[in-house]
TrEMBL record:
It is found in: Cytoplasm. Keywords: Cytoplasm, Hydrolase, Nuclease, Ribosome biogenesis. This is Putative pre-16S rRNA nuclease. Residues 1-103 form the YqgF/RNase H-like domain. The lineage of its organism: Bacteria, Bacillati, Bacillota, Bacilli, Bacillales. InterPro entries: RNaseH-like_sf, YqgF, YqgF/RNaseH-like_dom, YqgF/RNaseH-like_dom_sf. It comes from Bacillus songklensis. SUPFAM superfamilies: Ribonuclease H-like. Its main location: cytoplasm. Could be a nuclease involved in processing of the 5'-end of pre-16S rRNA. HAMAP family: Nuclease_YqgF (MF_00651). PANTHER family: POLYNUCLEOTIDYL TRANSFERASE, RIBONUCLEASE H-LIKE SUPERFAMILY PROTEIN.
Length: 139
């Protein structure tokens, strides 16, 4: 079974999926939602879960640098609860501090244009979140 990684923003949700062995994360897509209406993504997530035979979700938890959870983190926790109810799968929260910055750095090093970076940054951040989780399980 595979794991789905999510980078939850106010208007987009980056989605990544693991390989069947749980070793690597690949970016799938960015789901667009109306501002702060993340539950609109649940039908599409159900389709992806069915297609990729997913048995758990890893949701990025954006903590403040001092480890506290701010409004964005609270919104992610609330969305995680909605996912548990709607999908009946295990949902794991993963500290995603700096994942978007790391994704931006990777894309800059790959010389991806600003326009293209904007389109893929959330998906890339989801890959970083999921890969961090997968790597931690291997240790």
């Amino acid at each position: 079974m595979r794991t789905l990684g999510l980078d939850v923003g106010t208007k987009t949700i980056g989605v990544a999926v693991s390989d069947a062995m749980g070793w690597t994360a690949q970016g799938l897509e960015t789901i667009r939602v109306e501002e702060n209406q993340t539950e609109q993504a649940i039908p599409r997530l159900k389709e992806l879960i069915h297609t990729y035979e997913v048995d758990k979700l890893v949701v990025g938890l954006p903590k403040n640098m001092n480890g506290t959870i701010g409004p964005r983190g609270e919104a992610c926790l609330q969305f995680a609860e909605q996912l548990k109810e709607a999908l009946g799968l295990e949902v794991i929260m993963w500290d995603e501090r700096l994942s978007t910055m790391a994704a931006e750095r990777v894309l800059l090093e790959a010389d991806v244009s600003r326009k293209k970076r904007k389109k893929v940054i959330d998906k890339m951040a989801a890959v970083m979140i999921l890969q961090g989780f997968l790597d931690s399980k291997g240790k």
